[in-house]
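Tokens as discussed.
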């Protein structure tokens, strides 16, 4: 069931991204001067179908969990700060809450990653649709500066965590009321780890691409451009030994160290210290 839940969350994210990508402006053909005039408007006029599909998926999988979860002794849970409420699937309202809230967490992770990619935004000749795709994911904020995308991701994280607290409390899944003042900042910081993981992955791929030739594919061009932009703050250090550039290694180490700081135990230790 956990693998099925993982696959369904991935499918739900794809439906969400397809819905947002459907609002992208239609690209202008290269030979539009010789052929008929291109149609104006978004790429897909009926992209709302993907949104309906997402809502149907979240509702139908709650029905599925309610029907088959009890027979499989499957009791999923979500980790909060001090406890992990269990969503017994023999209660439909709890199965529905788990379906929606778990997807909410995935969507928060997605938007932190999108905010990072929007900040890097590789500059290559063959990626003309990539900036439009990123802009479409953020809606009317798409063309605003990248820091507004981070603010949007933080606001989404706060809203999801607030809704999660209130929903679990209304279902009686927590033993005591949750202190939002301490809960929300820590949980939002934990959500930030998705962007840190992506950062480490980009730096590892950049390091490999620096010493192994993978061709001139657009993907590797974007990886090279993203890695260079990530390492701009470290370039003044000039950590070069012979022909080996150690700056990417330092960048990976710093990102890994930052990830260690964003562990739940470490954050709880900090907020529990007396002022």
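Sequence:
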């Amino acid at each position: 069931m956990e693998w099925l839940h993982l696959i369904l969350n991935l499918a739900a994210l794809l439906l969400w991204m397809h819905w947002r990508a459907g609002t992208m402006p239609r690209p202008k053909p290269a030979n539009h001067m010789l052929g008929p005039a291109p149609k104006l408007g978004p790429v897909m006029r009926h992209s709302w179908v993907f949104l309906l599909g997402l809502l149907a998926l979240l509702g139908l999988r709650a029905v599925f969990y309610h029907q088959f979860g009890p027979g499989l002794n499957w009791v999923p849970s979500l980790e909060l700060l001090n406890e992990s409420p269990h969503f017994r699937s023999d209660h439909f309202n709890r199965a529905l809450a788990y379906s929606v809230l778990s997807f909410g967490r995935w969507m928060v992770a997605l938007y932190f990653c999108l905010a990072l990619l929007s900040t890097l935004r590789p500059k290559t000749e063959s990626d003309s649709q990539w900036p439009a795709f990123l802009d479409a994911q953020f809606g009317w904020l798409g063309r605003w500066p990248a820091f507004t995308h981070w603010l949007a991701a933080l606001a989404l994280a706060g809203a999801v965590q607030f809704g999660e607290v209130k929903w679990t409390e209304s279902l009686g899944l927590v033993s005591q009321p949750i202190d939002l003042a301490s809960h929300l900042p820590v949980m939002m910081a934990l959500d930030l780890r998705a962007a840190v993981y992506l950062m480490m992955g980009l730096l590892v791929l950049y390091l490999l691409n620096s010493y192994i030739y993978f061709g001139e594919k657009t993907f590797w061009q974007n990886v090279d451009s993203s890695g260079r932009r990530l390492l701009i703050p470290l370039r003044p250090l000039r950590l070069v030994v012979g022909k080996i550039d150690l700056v990417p290694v330092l960048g990976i180490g710093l990102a890994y160290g930052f990830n260690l700081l964003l562990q739940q135990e470490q954050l709880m230790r900090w907020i529990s210290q007396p002022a």
